[in-house]
Amino acid sequence: MSPLHYRGGALHLEGVALAAVAERFGTPCYVYSRAAIEAAYRAYDAAFRNRPHRVCYAVKANSNLAVLNLLARLGAGFDVVSGGELARVLRAGGEPSRVVFSGVGKRVEELRAALAAGIACFNVESAAELDRLNAVALDMGRVAPVALRVNPDVDAGTHPYISTGLKTNKFGIPAADARALYRRAASLPGLAVHGIACHIGSQLTDLAPLREAAGRIAALRAELAEDGIAIGHVDLGGGLGIAYRDEAVPSHAEYVAAISAPFDGSGVEISIEPGRSIVGAAGVLLTRVEHLKPGAERNFAIVDAAMNDLMRPALYDAYHAALPLRETGDATQTWELVGPVCESGDFLAHSRSLALAEGDLLALRDAGAYGFAMSSNYNTRPRPAEVMVDGERVHLIRARETLDDLWRGEVVLAD
Fold this sequence. Notes:
21 strands, alpha/beta, nine-stranded mixed sheet, 12 helices
């Protein structure tokens, strides 16, 4: 359920009027609901009931320290894909023994940092990485816990940029090679085989591909048992998608039942790595209309947020509902919501029926995931502030960047 609602004609997030947030912190501005984040995590945790499990939040979705700290306090695990994300988790109070490290290109220094921290598992994505991790572990006098990320060649039916489980994707180890590579991993003295990992994509709302992938992982686990390789946990990747528009999203209980069924009675621990479905609907991006530019073919509403603030529409042609911060009875027109960045691809929304005037405020819904996390300073634009609401309280959790922040660390030539 969305934490957004109109009260007295004004759009609120929890108990806070968003117009007051815009007035206090300026626009563009990301605003998140603490209650929505916590409820989304608890829904996954509760859906597993008494089954051994670990809910590892995918840090890449939104890596603000305040968000990570909230989840750490709830007992969440974390899925990281870089040394920087690991450092963020540790800084936010995350428990390293509940961290899994995924990603296709882990550097030696990142492996060292993760081993030193004592993370739960490395999700290894290639034979080359297996050898590198073994060498690093032996050099440090450690044994690295590993799972192989197996590519089951299952089509998730999602956008091709966020599909990760096909044999044409860069991720994971081909299923046909997995059994032999597990035998090799089990023979290496710097490694301890703990699990199997799998991730077929993001923004999934159909359970059929998830069932198929889980079944293939269960079959591989049985084959490995024949080889004397005991698998104690399976990591089945990302969580559910969210309803950006009119998608029908299964319940948490339906999702957990679908991925868990092939492992019933096995005692195996099941890990998942939801990100979007924990923070996506919890966040909005506030923006202000700078200019209205009606035209013969299209009407453009030029707002102060841009593709550098919210990349998803330009990158994926993604849909985010645009809500006025104040309800009016004025007649609507059809508008293209575009930003000030010097690119024709700088748009936030197409063909929206809105009653707009210069200075009006809008909230782009479902912007809590892959919003600020993918933002940039393109066109030398400072990144927005981030704010957390908690009931009727408001907390600034990241200050808006200044121009001085943008060139900190740069130098000009002396002569």
